[in-house]
Input
Amino acid sequence: MKDSILEEEISLLKGLARSDKKSVEVIYSQNYNLVQALVVNNNGTTDDAKDIFQEAMMVLFDKARSGNFELNCQIRTYLYAVARRLWLKKLSKSNRYIADFDDTNETQIAVDDDMVEHEQKDAEFDMMHTAIGTLGEPCKSLLEAFYFKNLSMQEIAENFGYTNAENAKTQKYKCLMRLKKIFFSQYKKTDK
Output
């Protein structure tokens, strides 16, 4: 890659890691059509293409945020390789796999490790979602208020009827320990 292109790509990746709206828009506008063509030309719909592109962007986002991702190709090539792998997997799962998969992009990038890591994170996210679902009240609502709604401990104390923020903080800690116990009991079951 030429130095100016490489610098632009690295700048876009850094912006993506910061969730910079402009960087995300540039990456989207420069790459979505390629992924859409891949999916639509290979037994998919535009909705499938949107889903695959979003998933590929999440893989790229995770890699960019990791801080140790070294881009050795253009973002376009990387996203295409990830999207291709995701789409082939989806086709295979739904028994729509076609032997003459139209692959107009000759450049192949090894994304196996990235995909395995992404799939592992997805599985862990699903387990955490299940664990939160089995947590029960008031823990479920308390943790959602703190982590998803970003309420302060004082606001949580008022909303949940605790005498002060310290009591709410203690309850949050107990709830986290319960969640951790549930999550890791599930994690150990799937690890076998």
